[in-house]
Amino acid sequence: MTEPLSPDQAARRDRMGILARAEAAALAALMPPAPAHRMLRAPEVGAVMVRGRAGATGAPFNLGEMSVTRCSLRLETGEVGHSYVQGRDKDHARNAALIDALAQRPEGAEIERIVLRPLAEAEAARAQARAEKAAATRVEFFTLVRGEDQ
Amino acid sequence: MYVAVKGGERAIEAAHEWLAEERRGDTALPELSVAQIREQMALAVNRVMAEGSLYDPDLAALAIKQARGDLIEAVFLIRAYRTTLPRFGGSEPVDTGAMLPDRRISATFKDVPGGQILGPTFDYTHRLLDFKLMAEGEAPVARRAEPRGEPCPHVLALLDRDGLMEPQTPGEAVPPDLTREPLEMPAGRPLRLQALTRGDEGFVLSMAYSTQRGYGRTHAFVGELRIGRVPVEMEIPELGFAVEIGAVELTECETVNQFTGSKSEPPQFTRGYGLVFGQSERKAISMSLVDRALRWEELGEENSGAPAQDAEFVLYHCDNIQATGFLEHIKLPHYVDFQSELELIRRLRAEALGQREAAQ
């Protein structure tokens, strides 16, 4: 096992996950004005090989690729933001990297409040809606009791 | 001899123009958008993603539109596109046990923790054409219920706990990748599973069906079938730890197979496994049956000579792009090849006729 993450690393992992799973348009709508920054790696479209495990828990195997766009940039104030987001939307990747960088600044709590929390809530609402529809299709078995068995 | 023949360019250009016009169809009707295909032809999109081996619903929908609905042609387009993408890395193996399932059923146990969840299934429909869909109506709305928030552990883990299931070790080896190295025999299980998950659904289905009909019978029960989204995690080189980079919808099928034991293994239940991009239930079940049939050697079973037990036969023929590439190339000009055939037949005929005349 790898060593446990520091609180900063854990926060960054959570944040990058929220940004990657967010809908690109929802993130774009929440973006604050972009601060001055320089691209370290302009948004680049590529693929990641998704792996599964034989029998769900056995040896890893290659399932197939997914499209991913990544971006790295540095704010004028020095913070470096990274993003790896599903799909081929370069604006999504750039916005995610900007938020990753901004969240490291003193105003990080504000970024959390105006961008990350609404995205996390939207994601939770989507998951809840599917879970509710799934719950409605859950089978409630009941057994008929026949007279002669009593 | 190689003879360059020119003169086809104008005909080819005209053919492509006509193809584009035919693709559009009757212009009195609205054009189909890629987003409409993605949302309303979702299972075709899933199939193109699975066999194209690239999870990207928008691109799969575009490929279906461009291919006029020919799904193998669409898979071809996706396969060609994915070769242009740089590979950023490989994900951590996805944890299907943590899936919040849209659908989750077991054919082996009625009462399973987390329950039997039917999800948006064609099962129990009457397979009668629904003429209401020919008219535009109000958007249907699914009913909802309060989720119980129970965990949904893998059903086979229950048998595993009782020691009745063949043991399974996680292993952390980087799996071989048939998109990077040519597929060679003997192929281990990770390579076989990769070939099967991107294999042609019809081919894998027929191979699975053949085992049910007795050609390499495996006595399969669907221990569990589940469909839902799982997050995909990858270690980011710049950071040195793993983050989620997105989520994919998967269908997973685990079969429980009766097994009376062999020279090397005690009587126990054995496993077949299917995992496929998207909601692809038929494919996932088929894959798990074929996976189990191909495991005869490692389980010390008898090779009955059934096609589904022949890894070389199954794996070298399940890829519909390789198959269609080789099959369809025979319609392209073979003028010189055929010229030599023609000369050979003429000579043989002349000899045969000459001998007959001489004998008379």
Determine the strand fraction of chain A and express it as a percent band.
Answer: 25-35%
Low-confidence stretches of chain B: none
Major sheet strand order of chain B: 3-4-5-6
Taken from the alpha-carbon principal axes, the silhouette of chain A is elongated
Largest beta-sheet details of chain A = 3 strands, antiparallel
Distance between the termini of chain A: 57 Å
Rg of chain B, rounded, reads 26 Å
What does this structure look like?
- The complex is a heterodimer of chains A (150) and B (360).
- Chain A has 150 residues and is α+β, with helices and mostly antiparallel strands.
- Chain A has a domain at 22-122.
- Chain A is 43% helix and 27% strand.
- Chain A has helices spanning 7-21, 24-30, 90-102, 108-136; strands spanning 37-53, 60-75, 80-86.
- Chain A is elongated and about 85 Å long.
- A 4-stranded antiparallel sheet of chain B has the order 3-4-5-6.
- In chain B, strand 4 (220-236) and strand 5 form a beta hairpin.
- Chain B starts with 8 loop residues before the first helix and ends with a helix.
- Strand 1 of chain A pairs parallel with strand 2 (87-93) of chain B.
Please name the defining characteristics of this protein.
heterodimer; A: 150 residues; three-stranded antiparallel β-sheet; 4 helices; elongated; B: 360 residues; 3 domains; 12 helices
In short:
The complex is a heterodimer of chains A (150) and B (360). Chain A is built from 4 helices and 3 strands, in the order ααβββαα. Chain A is of the alpha+beta class and 150 residues long.
